[in-house]
What does this fold into?
Amino acid sequence: MRLHIDSGAVADEQILTYRWAGNHAVTWSLERSRTLRSLHGAYVLSPVPGGTEVTHILLLDPRAQMLGALKPAPRK
It folds into this structure.
């Protein structure tokens, strides 16, 4: 899947490959991106009494350090 992202501070085009494991999970991996070295994610579905539990897993490796952009500015 081709994904276009433009949040103002970050713009990128990512190509992701999805894999389905029946009705129990879907995983995805990054094929191409300008801002990420790697990206792996998953949704894993588990039956629980009265419904379904969904576990979301996301691992990413940005090309540039992004923590400063995500931290709020200190208050004076």
In short: The helical segments are 67-70. The CA atoms of residues 45 and 54 lie 5 Å apart. The mean pLDDT is 88. Strands lie at 2-6, 11-21, 25-32, 36-48, 51-62.
